[in-house]
Protein 1
Amino acid sequence: MSRSRGTWTSVVAAVLLTAGMATACSSEADKAVGVCEATPNGTLMAATQSEASGKTKDISTNPELSTGYRSGMKPASTKTFAVATANTVASKAACEVLRDGGTAADALIAAQTVLGLVEPQSSGIGGGAFLMYYDAATKSVEAYDGREVAPAAATENYLRWVSDTDQSAPKPNARASGRSIGVPGVLRMLEMAHREHGKTSWRELFDPAIGLADKGFPIGPRLAAQIAEQAKNLAVDDAAKAYFLNPDGTPKATDTVLTNPAMAKVLGAVATDGAQAFYTGAIAQDIVAAVTAGSGGRTPGLITTTDLANYQAKKRTALCTDYRNHQICGMPNPSSGGSTVAATLGILENFDLAALRPDNLANGGDSALNGGKPKAEAVHLISEAERLAYADRNKYVADTDFIPLPGNSPQTLLNKDYLKQRSGLIDRNRSMGTAQPGDFGPVPLGVGPQPPEHGTSHISVVDQYGNAAAMTTTVESEFGAFHLVDGFVLNNQLTDFSADPLGTDGAPVANRIQPNKRPRSSMAPTLVFDKGPDGTRGALTHVAGSPGGSVIIQFVLKTLISMLDWGLDPQQAVSALSFGAGNTPTTGLGGEHPSINTADNGDHDALVLRLRELGHQVSVAPQSSGLSALQRASDGWTGGADPRREGAVLGDTR
């Protein structure tokens, strides 16, 4: 069904009045009045981290601003299709595509282009993405790689200094210079997925975003808070300053109406001429001009129009592993998300997690709806398993087009016997603090300091045909490199590389920057299936994923374990306390969660105290996930959206 851009604008803009709410939309009877409407399900607090918990922001573990927690959210129930994004406006646009017969691949395009407008701090067409897609007709699982790449002119010291002859650091810093910007990949990837799985015309899928860009949309609380936090950095770029700040330099506030005619023009060109319109011609030239400009004393990047024209999205072999009576399919390299999630689960398979179900689930009320409170023993075991898995990730995982994995296969790190041996390193009475990677013999790689990785956005979709998609999408840090070109934010994805090409032992680091290489990611879009009696893949049961930088892995793991081992519904699993560890002595407990007493740094919280007795260094700083999860039910789908963001699950009601 065709619809005018004006119609899309009025329908989608109306949902802004209920932003931050989650439910399902109505079906046939509501088509005339606009379906996929949100209804109240908790109010998102427009609070900064300090307002929410009194904690200061730690960008290494909490890359985006915390905006509170919607306590007591209930799961959404749908009949044949469902979509969850981190913003209600994007969920609504995608839901209406599904309602009108579109596929999961179609819905992703509508959602992504709208997200680029309403949450440009997190994702957009100037960034990249990873996509896991299930095709119900062929029963195949496919992995799409739309990760950004380094320019052909990049050297191993590209992020460290201006040139081999001028060894001064990029200005004002690596992130805000042109050096952090990788060749964007998300549009090429979406075009590939649409070509293989789309049903609605490519052109029509851009109408919601074009309508919003033309007619305007009010700034939501989360975007307003992010603008305020980054106003100083946004002011350095003339285009970003004009768009996000008032003439007097103050940040634009919640409910300020933004129009973006430049973005509407770009989206219109891509809608008409395909992704090629972005990667060649005037748009590509504008990108190169923005990256290579040295205005304001910034160090230019070295992206060329040839780099853009040559960019290709890639199909990868999905990484599918068994976990108890499930099959978990995740993203392979260059993302470390799929392999680290799988390795952690493989270690935990040797423990009876079902016996460690969270407390406070039986009494009802908000405590149960919020996922209860995990037992200290469960947090301990899961965090220790994560430390072991991160240790291997940190040393061995990078873009396998450049750096082979041990044994030239992800299965070396995921071998059941190896993971059982790793599980034996866990002391149930004492944290290991920092784990050592497994020994796979001499390898020409070093372990360098791990670069900070930052926030993104995530989309979970199932359509009426049984197809499903989990896509995690990013511009890297909030507002990427603070460069705005033609109305969209350019990423700073190259800071996901290790800036120093050599490790502490003097050997080359696996995740060092190289020409045309893709930086390692932690994004973990995930599809879960039943495992048949003969070990084959059964029915699709769950779709999940989250933003959150390197902590994505922990967010996804706690959600999967909550659903698969503890029997929580998707909303409980998503709402549940965020906890876990990278390979450091610090174990995080999300202080935004109502079950944690953050007073005096957690000194009065029983869970915190018990973990400290076990040797954990516990942080109760807020954690800013953006999880979503969909679960198959006997009569349709059940879904949950993260109470820490403005998202919603929408679909056709049962």
Note: Residues 5-315+458-496 form one domain.
Protein 2
Amino acid sequence: MSKPAVSAALALALALSAGTAAARDKAPADLILTNARVYTVEDKQPWAEAVAIRDGKIVAVGSIAAVGKLRGAATRTVDLGGKLVLPAFGDAHVHPLFGALSRSRCPLQDGKTIADYQALIAKCVAAVPGDGAIYGIGWSDALFPPSGIPNKALLDAVSTTRPLIFESTGGHTYWLNSKALAVAGITRDTKDPANGTIDRDPATGEPVGSLQEAAMDLVKHMIPPPSAAEIQNSILYVADHFNSLGIVSWNDAGVEYDADGGSAMVDAYKAVLDAGKLTSHVAVSLKWKNEQGMEQLPGLLRAAERANRLGISTHTVKFYVDGVIPQKTAFMLAPYENSGDERGKPQIAPDLLKQAVTAVDGKGMHAFLHAIGDGGVHISLDAIEAARKANGARPTHHMITHMNVVDPADQPRFGKLSTFAQFQPTWASWYDYMELTVAAIGPKRATYIYPAGSIVRAGGKLAYGADWPVGGANPLEGIEVAMTRRTAGDPNAKPLLPDEGVSLKEAIASHTINVAYVNGFDAVTGSIKTGKSADLVVLDKDIFNLPAYEISKTKVLVTLFEGKPVFGDWTDAASPAAR
């Protein structure tokens, strides 16, 4: 074929393609949401009145008249009567398996006192005959002042014949009875493992009944592992719960894998996805194994490659840099109050952390770092800085989570290093826990607790993650507390460092588009924009026109995932006149 003929054929093909695209753009929508207050979280078009959806995608956002042009004979139109529509929410920090097991294996969350815990555990012992271990989750550090360390005698009062192993809400401590210690062979002569502590009586050296961090591994073999069905059910449970809160995107923060790249959790996600029941965009963060060094990197990369091949987005590595403050396992820049030179220690050596983060960044993956003490935050930022210097500017979005305390000198580094600060907004209202924290770090450092506002003012960005089930996952409660820094729904509650609150728009962005960005889904979800997935929420109240302390009382009426309701019903959301 001659060149003119080729050119003519190409021109014809392009014209036909353009004509097909134009026809598709003008095709009727499947669904139009109209007469609404649509907050898009898009700077160029922050507000609209209507949204059109076709094949699960947003095809138009704008005025009632403009969007109405896509109405056809088969289009369903829902008049929302002025209700607020937002992008569906996301969560950048979730533990689905831990959360589901915390509700299925002797849960303690409903206990408010130590006596409550004992009664709940006694029921579990009675309900499970035999001599095997009883395991549960959900006790609060705050009920064991001043250090958050419980004693075996309290569990011995329930049973001395069955091993009792109970994990704290935060997942950093086991509480054991004497039988569990005996079966595990833990005595006064047992040495603390690396990155772990066997809590002991200061006078006798005898174990008191709690294990911190890596010391938990000494008894994990006594806990029955979850079955494949339990793991799949945990995903289904979380998807249903999160959809009811308006959440359709989450990051599973710390998934285990083996040396060959296999992962029971990834396999469970694949099974749920193949069954058509995964009603959220899910990203997986693979757990860096602190007991190993750089030799684990090839296995980690194999696990990421396999998960991505199976259709489970895996581009992030979760590093546990330190522990928690009340038990003094968080790494601090200066010693804890009245503790001599005790300042905790990193669970990953700073030089190794730099090497690991640099390697992960070099592979185009993102570092997700658990750091609670100001020392943990500092060495995490140092590691990210080392990666930026070694690899140059890359489209990697590293993130540090928790950050109970951030030294003022480190607060501007988030913006300079393009690193997201991931706070758990509702933790600012955990007064009992904050009392333990303040007692451990003293009044000066207590002015640096969860400094979200300062980091934003210094040029940093936030991406919120509830750390569910450690904290409640309700984004509307999170938005309120992010703004007010006090107990949700209580305008008279004492705020925690109120100047560290953020604006409503910042709080919404940090629960939507910013989360989508760090989860790797910003091109797909997180804002209301033509071409994106139709992931939306309809609220019963307009949070832009409410007192801040009323935001947490707002309800999600409908949650859309890929254009389909996964929670709620249009009969609840439509204007009464249009029903």
Note: Residues 16-23 have pLDDT under 50 and may be disordered.
Protein 3
Amino acid sequence: MTFLPTRVAHALAWPLMGLLMAGCGSGRPGVHDTSSSTAGPLPRLGQASPGRLQACESLAQSMADPHTTITAATRVPAGRLKVAGAEVGEHCLVTGRMFDRISPVDGQRYAIGFEMRLPVQWNGRFFYQANGGTDGNVVLATGEIGGGGPLTNGLREGFAVLSSDAGHASNQNPLFGLDPQARLDYGYQAVGKLTPMAKAMIRAAYGRPADRSYMVGCSNGGRHALVAASRYSNEYDGILAGNPGFQLPRSGVAMIHTAQQFSRVATDPADLATAFTPAERALVARTILDKCDALDGARDGQVNAIAACRQRFDLVRDVPSCRGARDGQCLTEPQKQALASIYRGPQDSRGRALYTAFPYDPGLTSANWAQWRFAFPLTLSAGNMAVLFRTPPAPAEVLKNRAAFALGFDMDRDAPLIEATDARYTESAMAFMAPPHATDLRALRERGAKLIVYHGMADGTFSPLDTARWYDELRVTSGPAEAADFSRLFLVPGMAHCGAGPATDQFDLLGALVAWVERGQPPDGVVAQARGPGNAGGANADVPADWSPTRTRPLCAYPAFARYKGQGSLERADSFVCRTAD
């Protein structure tokens, strides 16, 4: 993705427009929806019909794909598997691998490992569970829905679920980046290979194809989902992308920049967390709340008026400056400079932005935020930037001292390597990781498919402002009404990376997506819930003690935000309404 010219980006940032709306249509499968688009009506995709598993153990022999090896196909009795304490019904577990090979570059063995879980009582739908991180693990194919750990999952809901390792094993991270094909599989090609195989498996297991196909993921899984919206628009009817790192190499540059800035003010060079202690993070969070909490009409410990807060809060001006030693009640001038630089985003020596800015949000107090800002820049990000996201890769010996690589990274010399190619690595890191034509999703729209994206405002690694900028650009490319026909963005105040933070971080956007795809019900607002102590969904330690442990809030379709009505409990979603800025 390329950034808009500065004058256009500024004009589009946080636009003051009404709540996006789309028509609901007739509700009958196969008929056309009455859309708000000026480009004509869109197809309405029909509802999925339930089915029942017809084959399991025989799938190991019935799959004729020459590139696929089924290693096992067994029945799992009801109750054998539990997710979040809840029993999963009887299902068939299929494991296997695709495109087994030995790399001619590094001599390593690679394959696309996968598992599928096929419920006996099937809802007629396929669920591609996209992994996060650097992949490398075939995690349980339970159909994680995202949103901080909802009480249900895709498998329990009756979806046939696929998960994979995206073409390499975890013990090959990040050195699989030495192999050109492993790079491409990780970036996008594993999805292209797995999808038709999984659909064929469903046909063999149930005697008919899936009626509807959904891709769901957060973090790198959210990136996988947005890449699928662009590259594989014909394969998926609904796509749910959470905290998407769709410019992951660029955000990797930002993580390296974070390490460099914090290292300058850390009291212990081996521990970046000493640059910005929990007490100092709490001070900044309180100051943000002092300036911004009431902008949505209520002082409730959440900043819903995101755009107004960006104008109201100023780190240098508003946070107390230390006149003596650091005591948790002030920041030194070097600390302010480092933090301001991190939130502004990395730049080269000519002042050109290398990634998007980050918004200030009180969720920076969370352990999730701290892990991404203090631990991962010198470990995960440094390794990926050294081998996977540059051409040519650095020598493997660099991984012996990742901190030295990160702190010696040059924004003029090294950052451009994410765009570089050579005779061996013919696709740059940005080319194989980012969705091509990310803001031209007409093929997805014109099929009647739908896209929902959500992003926590306290994400410590992928900027929600980058996601908002992408969505603004999508609306320019498509037209606001046309974009509303098939897409929604939800920004989640206080939420960190894919969950946690002082936030109502539990929500079911998959259910909203299915209702939109199959019943024509566009999700302009979705109720989100906190997960305080005692919550059946699992406790979120970041939920403040003075909140109800089950506080609810509406998530509002961007650019709207939740505004207090002026009466009613501050713990209930129905006391708030989705509004755009005045």
Note: The two ends are 31 Å apart (CA to CA).
